[in-house]
Structures
1.
Amino acid sequence: MSEDLATPGTSVAAAQGAGATDEPLLQVQDLYVTYPVRRSMVQALRRVPKQYVRAVDGVTFDVRKGEMVALVGESGCGKTTTAQSILRLVESSSGSIRFQGTDITKTPNKALRGYRRRAQIIYQDPYESLDPRFRVRTTIEEPMTIHGVGKGGSERHRLMLQALVRAGLTPPELYVDRYPHELSGGQRQRVAIAASLVLDPDLLVADEPVSMLDVSVRAGILALLDGLRRDANMGVLMITHDLSTAAHFADRIAVMYLGRIVEEGPAKQVVRNPQHPYTRALLSVVPKRDPRNRTAPQILRGETPNPVNVPAGCRFHPRCPVAEERCKTIDPQLHTAPTMQTEEHQAACILV
Amino acid sequence: MSETLQLQGEKLDETAAVKRGRGGFLWQVIKDRPSAAIGLVIVLFFVVIAVFSHWLEPYDIHTQVGPVYGPPSIHHWLGLDDGGIDMTSLLMEGAKVSLIVGFAATFVAMVIGGGVGMLAGYFGGTTDIVLMRITDYFLVIPDLPLAIVIAAVWGPGLSHLIFVIAILLWTGTARIIRAQVKTVRERVYVKRSRSLGARNSRLVFRHVLPQIGPLLIANTVLTVAIAIFDETALSFLGLGDPTRVSWGTILEHAFDRTAISAGAWWAIVPAGICVSLVIMGCYLLGQAIEDALNPRLKVAHLSIKHFRLVRPLVGRGPDAL
Amino acid sequence: MTTPLLEVRDLHVWFDLSHGGQLHAVQGTSFSVEAGERMGLVGESGCGKTTSILAVMGLLPPNASVGGQVLLNGVDIMAEGEDTIRPHRWTDIAMVFQGAMNALNPVKTVGFQIVEPMELHEVAEGTAARRAAGELLEMVGIPAAAAERYPHEFSGGMRQRAALAMALACQPKVLLADEPTTALDVMVQAQILELLSGLANDLGLAVVLVTHDLPVVAQVCSRAAVMYAGEIVEAGPMDTLFHSPRHPYTRLLFAATPDLYGDEDVVSIAGTPPRLDRQIDQCPFSPRCDRTFDRCKVERPVLKTVDVDHRAACHLNDVPAGAPA
């Protein structure tokens, strides 16, 4: 699945020196998204210190062409906010987001139109993704109208049918005049994907694309995304809480906790050789489908703290089963350890 | 890999009635609910009378055709007023003004209220705060003194009356539309359109407006009822247009010119009944539309009736299934 | 053989449709649970699993018709419908609803919401009830002092625990849990599942776990029943279901679930489940089955025993070895 990745040992910087063609499709660097918490007037008068929600607290990662990266984590880890700020649906506080070399955080709103065509998002809820008053044809024509794609009605019609076929809805004529409520969840999700495909994007962000679909339908949608990655050389960023799905379909996995990436690397490596204590605990509690495979789960106590109160030092140390004294003061950075099999695999833990 | 198009067993949509294509919605409401049909018939009845009053009036409203406060008779079913003028003709003429003022005031109120609600709901933030403050001020001003002041300052006239009533009415619409717009704006398909690059104008006109359309209609119908009532009240108090006949002025004249002591109930009651009927008709229609928009108002599981037990179980079921 | 704690026999549920006709949502399901046992009821949306347990609780709306037997310790509590079920609801059989964590009363304290069923069913009252509520909270992993707090002050996982405590308020023997961990993070899910297993062991509670999540059932339950189109298509020990399934749907459902370490391709099942408002005179899964043959299209299979404690409804089990598949 990942033959086209740079061979282990080659850093991105060296690749950039070799030629601009190796530049990643998407480069996120030191991304921060911080929201101030509203204080009541009484609190402001009492000089209660301002609090901030540190939704995304310093995230750096890449997505290359023809690659699927899974951003994995529990609720509150910041994965959805990261995805939304990549698409400028949410304004980041600082950091850079380079898309094909251009930092889109600096792009003024009016000029974002071009970006919006190249980077698309698929939402989680297929039952709410489509306007219930639009037939399928209108839903798919809308992006074409917005961006002026296709010269004339017949060409747009052709492009629409093409997009439906690409999204797995064949024969497309059967679907064009349907309303969303006449379609199943999987079909609706495919329509949403088709509406994005019609613009021929380079980057596809899929926010929990299958979590609201029946199990028997999920593989079809994920295979579709995988096919797009392969055949159209798209970069796919998949946001999910389901580690099993990420392990199966993604090339690389980045595990997030409380606004930071705590471990990232090739999917198989992260899953079979996890280094960060959080990743290890998370993997141990994922239920396995084989009843004989009942490994003793390492259940962490309590729940993920509120992003308003990010612990000092290593943000995971209060729940970490192997935390030491120095973990309370040192904030670890991502690095590759000798226990890892490739330089692409990194973890943010001082014990690794 | 194609998937056959089939409705999934339990996914039969109760709200399908609402989503059944455009234009069909109102028709569906009327078909499903007899109250809506009754309401519509009543309102249409009076609209027809108002539109065709010139041809329907049996007698001229400026000509005396009998004695002062002549009682109902075969020639004059609703008797005569203090000027000896046929009441039936007066009521038909009155329908015209009452309904015109009612609809016109409602239209203006809808435009103002809908616009304010839409802007406040869609843009939120400071726009919302400012617009809602303005709305609150108008809500708080007592209706009657405001109407009296405006009428006194401006003088009588139909357009003034329409304007006064519109000022009283727009705030209710603004609040309702704002709430609904806020909800719709957060829907995933609106967000998705925005992420596709749609501009605000497209989002508002193609996604938000159609969703709040039915609600706007329901609200409009109910506002018409209030507008007609307001017109009647204001005219009754002498703040209307004295040169025109409306149901309110009929009532006003009746009270001013001692119809009660003369025992001429026909100069008062029919006008009151007309107003009540139109308002009731609007309410029936408006409520039915509102109910259709909110299927959750049906309290299915809180019923005191329980599930039925099928005994004995022969074959596979109680029915031919 | 001991009488099972809860036994459901040939349960049928029909719903009257607003435009005439009926939806046959549950088509003759039968299963049983022993004390202290965890049984899974698995299936995708629309298969009838939630309706089945709602029927066991007698919590169906007025447009529902129910047939069959629900035996609690051998006694049919469905005999007279609502009248015979009511005395047992919550005191013997309790349910945690789907999304219960979001259905807590926001204006009442959590403690009040646990005491309320106790007082309504005359299990305890006043100070004794409040003390019992505190113990219940401790049992589900919430400090007793939190009884004075309101639901919005709890996190999602804690709200689910509180909903569990409410269901256990009247000390039922059977707990029906409908998707208890679906909306929760995987770590919190592990905590809740551990709690459920512990409660089953310590209290001798019979747990029926209704979910679409196969791995959850695989980890927690000893036995499971797979539902499709309103009926149970296969039932048996978890191990057997995974390693030697006797119904294609079971096999395909497992194959459609990605495994963390496995490398096999994840499959999807084309097509959609059949409409339940019409009589089905063939195998309901046949249109989507990868091993369907002629008999499947004309005759509806019956749930039959294929092995010890293993039932399946598939014609393939009747076909002797060597016959065309």
2.
Amino acid sequence: MTTTAAPAVGVPVTDRTRNEKRLGWKLTAPAVIVMLAVTAYPMMNALYLSLFSYRLTDPAAREFVGLRNYGVVLSDGLWWQTVFTTVIITVITVAVELVIGFAFAMVMHRVIFGRKVVRTSILIPYGIITVVSAFAWKYAFALDSGFINNWFGLGDFAWFGGRWSSIAVICLSEIWKTTPFMSLLLLAGLAQVPEVLQEAAKVDGATWRQRLTRVTLPNMKAAIMVAVLFRTLDAYRLFDNVFIMTAGAQRTETVSFLAYRQMISRTALGLGSAVAVLLFLSVVAIAALFIKGFKVDLSSVRGR
Amino acid sequence: MALAITLLASVTGACGGGGSGVPTLNWYINPDNGGQAELAAKCSAQSNGAYRIKTSVLPNDATGQREQLVRRLAAKDASIDLMSLDPPFIPEFAEAGFLRPYTEAEARELTAGALTGPIESGTWDGKLMGAPFWANTQLLWFRKSVAQAAGIDPARDPVTWSRLIEVASAAGKTVEVQGNLYEGYMVLISALVSSAGGRILENPEAGKNVRPAIDSDAGRKAAAVIQQLARSRAANPALSTTDEEAGRSAFQGAQGGYMVNWAYIYGAAQEAVAAGTLDRAVLDDIGWGRYPRVDANSPSRPPLGGINMGIGAFSNHQDHALQAVRCITSQESQTEYMLKSKNPAARAAVYDNAEVRAVFPMADDLRSSLAEGAPRPRTPYYTDVSTAVQRSFHPPASVDPSRTPARAAKLIVDVLKDKVLL
Amino acid sequence: MTDQRSFRARLGTYGGPVLVILWTLFPVIWILSLSFKPESGINNQKFLPDTFTLENYRTVFNTPLFTSALRNSVFISLIATLLSVMIATVAAYAIARLEFPGKKLILSLALAIAMFPAVSLVGPLFDIWRSIGLYDTWIGLIIPYMSFTLPLSIWTLSAFFREIPWEMEQAAQIDGATSWQAFRKVIVPLAAPGVFTAAILAFFFAWNDFVFAISLTSTDAARPVPAALAFFTGASQFQRPAAAISAAAVIVTIPVVILVLLFQRRIVAGLTAGAVKG
């Protein structure tokens, strides 16, 4: 399988290469335009709006306040509490998913019979609407309609009446829904660990645990890091579960939910836009941290 | 590409509302059991072909309803002709220019015979913006067997919150209130503050520069009631997430003793018995009385709610909409609606109707509660004020009379000045 | 010791898959069970219903809110998927086959979009859409869905295109076919599985979306199912009908289950860029 090599520097650009360049741009133009139209322009707009004090229901009172909104957000206890909640949920869900996902990946890797059934059932949480999952878990843990209290003899414990118990249920729903995705990414990495290395280790008398930590995991490092990166970004943007289960009560708001509430519920477009921009910058920061800091090799990403 | 264009064309076509001949009025209603839809059909028929009313349902809770309407009205949506508005949001909508004000003559006609509460709720800046349709208030519902055993009779003698919580705790029964983080909780807080003789805002008309009055004796007394209830045995274990339906369900259960809730409770219980999902004995055991007092010596001020009819300012059929409002808020319509939906009417005369009195044995209590009730603060920034109060007072177990009202006051001021997130 | 080991191995081989299946299907069975409970029997605190009833499904199908939401979801998701895959296919072909400056940049852009917080966009999008009249329309949702499914589609498709041997296209051209014919007769059949996979993944995204669904719609005209579920109302103004919502949830899960059953191999291949063989 060969691909045409790019013309070396100094070699005159032929018609062929020029046509190829133009064709390349023409073919990718629609995709680029659509992607930018929905993200770049609104983001600029959000940046612009964030410099105003602007309530949708009182457009006449709109006034330019510069960076004051950012000052308000960054010095607000609610903002930091929300960031804290989001970070906690992110760390817990990604950590648990990594472990469970890895276990699932191993099962899928080794399973001989029933492979189709296992694969199918693993994909169902992936395809289910997040809102459906949120309702299912909410009703399971609710005091009136739920069975969890009954099964575990918890009596009157109100799961949604406290901060950490609500967060626990939210995390549970999120973990259930996205572990399959994580396990598939890890399975891809697992499948790429050369079997010869495993065989060699077995011949050398390594135990199962030693093989895992000395052979499998190090060779999967790239896949693991990519999986963790994508899941972290997804978890940081958590919205659906919080909206359905608690609507942000009991201090379970995440940053996305906070942005939504300011922007859409309160129609405080100025402050809301500031929160939105800060959310965007946080996501960029996390991605940068992973790519530069942990040296995640994205060229190994060929598909999510 | 051609395929894409045809698809897009069909898509835009699918969204257009075609209407030829008879104009269609869109009426955005809060969810109910079909009563408003019936009125829509009736008034369409009565118009003799002049117009046709089509109902669209808004979300369950008042805040959600406001959210949906605000977005579309901010986009100057011409397809919103009629709206069933929750009264606290009328000042905001009026100030933003979303509503068509009724003229003096129209206002006189539409408010003739209506109770004071609903009229005030629909008025802003001297003009009627929402025609009174139905009015809601809360009563103290109690299980007669429980009250008898405790030795109190809330139907005859007004009872204070303190006493109620005491007797309920002693008997191992609950006092159900709405403690979830939503508008229903604000209703409770506002009613408590008003019953204690105070207000939440001193000068609500001042817009952004209101001075909160919740940090006062009245505010502290209200907070004390909530604190007492939340820490007592009489509280629902899930108090911080209890809403109207959860409270009703608990009240009808084994530990139910007392409950403050809207007027629909009795009708809903009757329907449940007819459907076989509720014991007849429970229905017979339900009694009602005036909203509990905060001070033993001053009458309570029950909360007010209900729906007022607004006409969209950008509607293309404002004259037809006005006729529709006349039909919908007529005495006949209000009587029908009260019977069907179990929500109290806004016109006083309806309560004297024999049929109504048969279904609503508590008609007089409703009427007097509506007459003496206190509305929630009327300000264009109501959502901010309400959310600030709710957040300060939630969860109910954390309320502290020495700190919570002051925190709420500060939060209200800060939020209105855009100095904090909410 | 060999007995222990083989017991453990056997436990792993049989127990593992069983555990996995239990874990993944547990909430699905729960919501199924809820949907068969009568509304009055919802609070029986048990996993299974006491009385089995189909009334919730009847209620749901009689609710215009839900039936129009279903229609909206189906059409919006299908159209968004179709458009997104069409655009992604040509873009991925260019990226996989051709050399042109800016290729890396486009891939990075796609990656950046995949990481974008959708919530940050709803405010400005709402503002823009309402001023040009796209608020509460199908197109108003289709456009953001296209943008957010393009990265995934481009990544999946460029991986698939890279696997196709260049020689086949050249061979066809030598045999006298034009570039376009070579593309149609040789490349398209080979790329079809990849396109199909990208389409399925894109469909899942559009079907699943919640943030845009609730922010950019407000009536039955364009509201898709996830938003409708959140707004489901009951017979009285205060009721939130858990059983009816469950029935609605089951109904919208059926297409997902069918798609997964039929195409599990393709989906796995797409998500793992073909690294995992069926």
